[in-house]
Design a protein that fits this description.
Blueprint lengths: L27 H32 L1 H12 E6 L6 E2 L5 E13 L7 H12 L3 H8 L6 E7 L1 H7 L5 E10 L3 H8 L1 E3 L2 E3 L1 H5 L1 H4 L4 E7 L5 E10 L6 E4 L3 H18 L3 E8 L4 E9 L2 E2 L2 H4 L9 H10 L8 E3 L4 E4 L2 E4 L7 E3 H6 L3 H8 L4 H10 L28 H6 L8 H12 L3 E3 L4 E5 L5 E4 L4 E4 L3 H16 L14 E11 L2 E15 L6 E8 L7 H18 L7 H10 L8 H8 L15 E3 L8 H10 L3 E4 L7 E3 L5 E3 L3 E5 L8 E2 L6
Parallel strand pairs: 2-10, 26-29
Antiparallel strand pairs: 1-8, 2-3, 3-4, 3-5, 6-7, 8-9, 10-19, 11-12, 11-24, 12-13, 14-17, 15-16, 18-21, 19-20, 22-23, 23-24, 25-28, 26-30, 27-29
Length: 681
């Protein structure tokens, strides 16, 4: 029997196996196929890369080139010099000037010795200082200080030295005009004229291209200006720097002497409404309370009650009323006189001695609408329109909201809030013959080339009194100064018309016990008024009546103005008045000095060269005269005492930047430094 083999036949397969070579590697045929596949992959990848390159370089090339430029270049803004602000005499009150910071990268310097010599010559450094900066091991060194444009010309193009432009805003008389001018924060005007005329002053910025490194940071010195900036326009104010200085000093001294919390002093020209001085102090700070802080005026409002009585034909100055013992009960309220005269008083005398009872009784003849309209016509309860932001309108309620006591209260200056500027303008209407003027703070506006583009002419608001009534009230107010409550405002030289006022101070919880507001408003000369002077002191300590505290400040201010070297007064008119009164020259030394002194002709300031100006020689001058000379050149001043100036620091002839501070060397009596102006240091 034959056995079958158990071996199964092999299955056939369609896969072909590469025949191995004798050494175990793939055959040549296998390698050939692999090379073809790899080559095909390379060709396909290259084609894709080529296509993408064509797309990027040809189809999208412009777009990507612009993107690359955006990554390595940045479009920047070149700040425009802010326009200047001048006083009425052309003295700088605010100005911008171009300065430069200098920095260097020591590792980029090709010749450090030569770079040190260049820095020493351009920046006025000692050779040792210059070598210290160029040999510094740091990657970046900033040289302290700010330098004039001449430095840019001397150092531009020097490898490793970088120059950065900077605009500085300087206020040569900062302490005097801080509230009126305001300030600039991040290029934007805040408060005062800087804010009110911000669009005009700020100018038009230019543009520049700034190179950036791979991390997007600006490369110092790698900039190209594509459009130059255009400077801002100029504002010329009605303010007089000499009068502002007088007003500020008089107010500061009054606040210190009386212990007052603060105060306001305003000097105006009644015929034009021009503001010649506007000073406000609160807790030692200069501000704008004169236009934005209303208060109850008290007796300084009484002339307008009398004016309304005369205008409406309700009384004459010679009419009398019985004031009794200086006390009167009306509608369960007692009105009292501070210093009772008692008995029968004429309307004129009631105003002169400031009788609350007399004025309140006379006011009972007025219809509420007449009383309201009389006060509103003088500008109370509405903004005056002064060219400053934040003006308050005060409070004058309509008769429909009055109580039974309102008419009597309003007659003597209560239940009404007014601002100092409103009160000054209202007295100006009496002084100029009966016309209420709009306050005028800006004389003109000029463009960047200095061409006048707008003038502000005097602007009458309305006639509130006839000339006859205005003259009658003026004569009565002269009596108030000569024999009434304002005797401490008297001048030996000219008749002064004015009225004092004392009102209780109002706080958060009502009237504050023992706290008062003292004020005085006067104008002189009474015959042909040239100036209105308003003074208010808040919460004076000790004597607090307006006649005892504010009136003397008015007199001191008038005397200082008369004694000023170039007061904004009509000297010929003053001389004619003095002659008509036959005043002996020896009895009025202040007036004699004012009238006899020739008008000062200020020397022409030295020219500004490359942003710098030469310090003038002011030796042998008084500190005040020297300060005015330096102020007129746009420099700040510090002096330490009151004798003749013996020198300056920096010394005469030294080149300094506009807005820099000059110290006047003493002099006679040593004392604590007195800073009259501060620059933007």
């Amino acid at each position: 029997m034959t056995r079958r083999s158990s071996t199964k036949p092999q299955r056939s397969t369609n896969r072909k196996r590469a025949a191995p070579t004798g050494n175990g590697f793939p055959s040549e045929r296998t390698l050939e196929w692999r090379r073809r596949i790899l080559l095909g992959a390379w060709v396909f990848g290259g084609a894709l890369l080529f296509a993408r390159a064509v797309e990027l370089q040809v189809l999208e090339g412009t777009e990507w080139r612009e993107e690359a430029e955006r990554q390595h270049q940045m479009l920047g803004e070149v700040a425009a010099p802010r326009g200047a602000i001048f006083d009425r005499e052309g003295l700088y009150l605010a100005l911008s000037h171009e300065t430069f910071r200098v920095a260097l990268a020591p590792h980029e310097l090709t010749d450090r010795g030569q770079a040190a010599e260049l820095l020493a010559a351009a920046l006025d450094l000692s050779p040792a200082q210059a070598r210290r900066y160029t040999n510094d091991s740091r990657r970046w060194v900033t040289i302290p200080g700010r330098f004039p444009p001449a430095v840019r010309d001397a150092l531009s193009g020097a490898r490793g030295i970088y120059i950065e432009r900077e605009l500085r805003r300087a206020y040569p008389h900062d302490d005097l005009f801080k509230g009126v001018l305001g300030g600039v924060v991040d290029g934007v005007g805040t408060g005062g004229i800087e804010q009110e005329f911000g669009d005009l002053l700020e100018g038009t910025p230019g543009t520049e291209i700034v190179a950036r490194d791979s991390e997007g940071r600006a490369i110092p010195g790698e900039t190209w200006v594509t459009r130059a900036p255009a400077a801002g326009g100029t504002v010329v104010l009605t303010l007089d720097t000499a009068l502002q200085e007088i007003a500020h000093e008089a107010l500061l001294e009054a606040v210190e002497n009386t212990g007052a919390r603060g105060g306001d002093l305003i000097v105006t020209e009644p015929w034009t409404g021009e503001i010649l001085a506007l000073a406000s102090l609160r807790d030692g700070e200069t501000g704008l309370a004169g236009i934005n802080t209303p208060y109850e005026p008290g007796s300084t409002l009484k002339p307008f009650t009398v004016a309304t009585l005369l205008r409406e034909g309700r009384a004459e100055l010679a009419d009398s009323v019985d004031t009794g013992m200086g006390s009167w009960v009306i509608n369960r309220r007692t009105i009292q006189d501070v210093a009772p005269v008692g008995g029968m008083l004429t309307l004129a005398r009631a105003l002169q001695v400031s009788s609350n009872v007399g004025i309140a009784k006379f006011a009972q003849s007025l219809d509420p609408n007449e009383q309201f309209e009389g006060l509103r016509d003088f500008g109370f309860g509405v903004p005056t329109g002064i060219a400053l932001p934040g003006e308050a309108s005060g409070v004058l309620r309509r008769p429909s909201s009055w109580s039974s006591q309102s008419a009597a209260s309003l007659a003597i200056g209560y239940e009404i809030n007014v601002t100092p500027i409103q009160m000054a303008m209202a007295y100006g209407a009496i002084a100029n013959g009966g016309v209420l003027m709009e306050p005028r703070l800006v004389l003109e506006i000029r463009d960047e080339s200095g061409r006048v583009i707008q003038r502000f002419d005097p602007e009458p608001v309305r006639r509130v009194l006839s000339e006859e009534i205005a003259e009658e009230i003026t004569a009565t107010l002269v009596g108030a100064v000569e024999t009434g409550t304002g005797t401490q405002a008297r001048l030996a030289s000219f008749a002064v018309a004015g009225k004092s006022g004392t009102a209780r101070a109002y706080g958060a919880g009502g009237y504050e016990e023992g706290a008062y507001v003292a004020s005085f408003v006067g104008f002189f000369p009474a015959e042909q008024p040239q100036l209105v002077i308003y003074v208010k002191l808040e919460r004076p300590q000790g004597a607090y009546y307006g006649g005892a505290t504010a009136a003397p400040v008015t007199r001191a201010t008038m005397e200082a103005i008369l004694a000023a070297r170039r007061p904004p007064l009509d000297r010929e008119a003053l001389a004619a008045i003095a002659a008509a009164q036959r005043l002996p020259r020896s009895s009025v030394p202040v007036v004699a000095a004012a009238l006899a002194e020739p008008v000062e002709v200020a020397p022409s300031p030295p020219p500004v060269v490359n942003g710098r100006i030469s310090v003038p020689d002011v030796r042998e001058l008084s500190p005040r005269a020297a300060a005015r000379r330096l102020h007129s050149m746009g420099l700040s001043v510090i002096w330490e005492s009151a004798g003749t100036v013996t020198g300056t620091v920096p010394s005469p002839g030294t080149l300094v930047l506009l807005g820099d501070t000059i110290r006047l060397l003493p002099v006679v009596a040593p004392g604590p430094p007195k800073v009259t102006r501060g620059a933007d240091d």
